[in-house]
Amino acid sequence: MPILTTTFLVGFSMTRHYLMCRPEYFSVEYAINPWMDPDAGADREVAIRQWEGLKSAYEALGHRVSLIDPVEGLPDMVFAANGALVVGGRVYGARFTHPERAAEGPAYLDWFVRNGYDPVHAAAFTNEGEGDFLTLDHLVLAGTGFRTDVVAHGEAQEFLGRPVVSLRLVDPRFYHLDTALFPLNGHNVAYFPGAFSKGSQEVLRNLFPDAVVADEDDATVLGLNAVSDGTHVVINSEAAGLQLELKRRGFEVVPVELSELRKSGGGPKCCTLEIRE
Ligand code: ARG
Q1: Which of 40, 120, 166, 227 sits a CA distance of 20 to 30 A from 198?
Q2: CA dist 182 → 44, 110, 143, 269 (Å)
Q3: 182 lines ligand 1 (CB under 6 A)
Q4: What CATH number does the domain located at 15-274 have?
């Protein structure tokens, strides 16, 4: 019987493929979200160490990590989630809101082309990849309000052939969807309601009556910027309440320390672009 249980769990927890970018040129030198303070800056050496910890955590879980070369002059390129959205092997490219990050779009697209992905679509509308698009089994949740243009939601739906559900973000601290919500598995999510408009809160309640609802304390340490493989949740170590609730629901919590990257408004998910073949 124990053998059967183990087999079931291993089968359920799928191996993932993540794309990451070492924070070799990471810094906080401009402010495009309320977390960023160029006067305070950030410690790159610490950021690199913490990022290595995240990468090791994925590898210890058996996940595959691919790397894209960092580009000098692009201090936010470490936030790989923003580089694209990949579903069923189709690559929908990012088109950044701020000129400071604009060159990241082509850099990520190029990586996918060079690695043989097809089709690769250069988006016509502003969107920040998996920062604002989160994929479940039968739909894609899409954020708008601060970065991604709502028109890009339709463009992504047409390109991917998956239904895309638009959600409106209203709190500038949670400027990307992935700072306020993460998929627990293919059919359920955890989220912080305060980040969303009234209408979008209602949509989330309707779609996910069984969701993990996080509070502001967990949201303000970017606890919702987490990565779940359906069994394990890699999450900022400070998100204590949320970790407890996840354990209660049967998830295995893997806490990571990414305080230095949070000074740019990023957490584990921001550093992680999932490649869904
Ligand atoms: N400093 C970056 C920005 O404001 C952080 C991006 C975080 N990425 C994310 N997927 N939420 O664009």
Answers
A1: 227
A2: 27, 27, 12, 9
A3: no
A4: 3.75.10.10
